[in-house]
Design goal:
The protein has about 70 residues and is an all-alpha fold. The chain has 2 helices and no strands.
């Protein structure tokens, strides 16, 4: 499943806020920007954790292959 580009969505929301003439529309766009940036941070954290788990699993698999068998 492809992840949305939250930073691009945040930039778009920021541009909408800059172009807004009404305060409530500007505020809504700025809230959207903040939410998208928070989602991007959570996505980054999840990606780092996934990479860390995969590296640990790969290291464990290599260690298991290198260990002498009990045959």
């Amino acid at each position: 499943m492809a992840n949305p580009d939250y930073r691009a969505l945040a930039a778009q929301a920021h541009a909408e806020a800059d172009a807004a003439t009404l305060d409530n529309v500007r505020d809504r766009a700025l809230r959207s920007e903040a939410a998208f940036l928070a989602m991007a941070a959570r996505q980054d954290l999840a990606d780092r954790n996934r990479a860390r788990r995969e590296a640990a699993a790969h290291t464990a698999a290599e260690a298991a292959e290198a260990a002498p068998g009990d045959s």
